[in-house]
Amino acid sequence: MTKTSKVMLVFACIFVTLAFSLFAFQAYVELCSMGLLFGGDNTLGDAIGGIFIFIYSIMLGIAAIVAAVVSLPFEIILLKGVGKKWYSLTLLIVTLATIVSAVVFFFLLPAVSQAINNATSSSSSIPSTSSY
Questions:
Q1: Digit-coded pLDDT (tens) for 51-97
Q2: What contacts 24+ positions apart, CB below 8 Å, involve 80-85?
Q3: d(CA 72, CA 91)
Q4: Which DSSP helix (H) or strand (E) runs through 37?
Q5: What local confidence, expressed as pLDDT, does residue 31 receive?
Q6: What would the pLDDT profile of 4-48 be if each residue is shown by its tens digit?
Q7: What's residue 16's pLDDT?
Q8: CB within 8 A of 115, min separation 6: which ones?
Q9: Which of 50, 64, 73, 77 could pair with 22 in a Cys bridge, judged by C-beta atoms 3.0 to 4.6 Å apart?
Q10: The pTM is what?
């Protein structure tokens, strides 16, 4: 392995780790946002907080995608330098999976809210059976 390949491997590992960490934090924040917005008894504060947290998760997703895209040139140079070694392919697969997953999480909350709205609008209300 040449010195250039070692440097590219180190930079690719740094940026892939950063991208994956940002994505994991984005997923956690996104799920917390859904818990606030669609949890049991919601107040106005829960709804506003859930929206702010959702905006924060979008920023984290953009940061994860940027970090993953920054790692791609290092991985391509590494792939050309060492060939199809297991570590170069693993870094490339993790990077592509991080990009796809971050994009999917962008559309997770709107899709879930649409599904919840469809489920609540199509369900019929249960009539009251209390008698006096």
A1: 888 888 889 999 999 999 999 999 999 999 888 888 889 999 999 99
A2: 81/1, 81/2, 81/4, 81/5, 81/8, 82/1, 82/5
A3: 9
A4: helix 3-38
A5: 83
A6: 889 999 999 999 999 999 999 998 988 888 877 777 677 888 778
A7: 94
A8: none
A9: 64
A10: 0.78
H or E segment to which residue 92 belongs: helix 86-106
User: What are the residues whose beta carbons fall under 8 Å from the beta carbon of 49, sequence distance 6 or more?
Assistant: 36
Which amino acid would we find at residue 46? Answer: D
SS3 132: coil
> Which tokens in the block code for residue 3?
């010195």
**110 vs 116: CA distance, rounded Å:** 10
Amino acid at 65: I
**pLDDT exceeds 60 at position 109:** yes
111: exposed, middle or buried (C-beta count within 10 Å: 0-12, 13-18, 19+)?
exposed
Give the HSE-up count for residue 66: Cα atoms under 13 Å, Cβ half-sphere: 6
The C-alpha atoms of residue 120 and residue 114 are separated, in whole angstroms, by: 10
Mean pLDDT of the chain: 83
